[in-house]
Amino acid sequence: MDVFDELDDAALTDLCAAMTTVQRRHAATLALWRLRAPLLMLRLDPAWGLHRTVVERVFRAMILTPDEEESHRAYAEAVAEMVSTPFFTDPEEGELDNVIAEVQVEAIAELEMWNVLDELSAEEVERIIRRPREVSGWLDRSTHDSLWDHPALGAHERYLETAPRLGRGADFGYHSTRNLAAEAACHDIVLALPPAAGLLGTAAGREALALCEAFSVELVSTLAWQHNLGH
């Protein structure tokens, strides 16, 4: 699959529709993994009552073998603990006051809606896959509009010089390009995995998780920088 084929909305829709139940679960898990590090490496609002260890348990339960009873129980217990926090039971009203919280809230909302115990529809998987795209595009725009250069601007420019061309006249920034490259690589891996294989059970699955984790850490760097600038 070409790295940027799925920029075509119809192509991504068709891909999600053609996936099996297990493939959709893997693709959605990997998309959420690309939003993981901001929840685990950056400070969560104390008012949410949501500790990062709770979030980590949900993520770890997501990649257990879904057909095993123990895996179902681990995931159900992790999610039950997460949704019992004030973030869900007594949510604050009003706008969020910083970029880190905005991205974290988007990721937590998707975690709540994702469910390892139920089948994901093609539409649900597509929505989840688009979430890191939206976050990446927003970060690229805000970074471009900033009066200050990103501390890793040189490295970002060197990456873009060697990245596959997007075509169609699109002008994608660093984070969008990295996310789309990881997304396409993960879809290739997911489609090639044996039907009964989990992400942790194969070298290819672990490679996909590592790709998403690396991208997720890139988000942390930019979010922390923007936060320090007062965004």
Distance from N terminus to C terminus (CA atoms, Å) equals 37 Å
Q: Kindly state the mean pLDDT as a whole number?
A: 86
| pLDDT < 50 runs, ≥5 residues | 1-6
Tell me the number of strands: 0
The tally of domains stands at: 1
Oligomer: single chain
The description of the largest β-sheet is: none
Q: Helical proportion?
A: 55-70%
Task: Give me the secondary-structure topology.
Elements lengths: L8 H10 L2 H13 L3 H5 L10 H11 L6 H15 L2 H4 L9 H15 L8 H24 L7 H10 L11 H19 L10 H26 L3
Helix pairs in contact: 1-8, 2-8, 2-10, 4-5, 8-10, 10-11
Label this structure with key terms.
globular, disordered N terminus, 231 residues, mainly alpha
Short characterization:
The protein is an all-alpha fold and 231 residues long. The protein contains eleven helices and no strands.
Question: What does the model show?
Answer:
The protein has 231 residues and is mainly alpha-helical. The protein has one domain. 66% of the residues lie in helices and 0% in strands. It has helices at residues 9-18, 21-33, 37-41, 52-62, 69-83, 86-89, 99-113, 122-145, 153-162, 174-192, 203-228. Helix 2 packs parallel to helix 8 (122-145) and helix 4 (52-62) runs antiparallel to helix 5 (69-83). The protein is globular. The relative contact order is 0.19. Mean pLDDT is 86; it is low at 1-6.
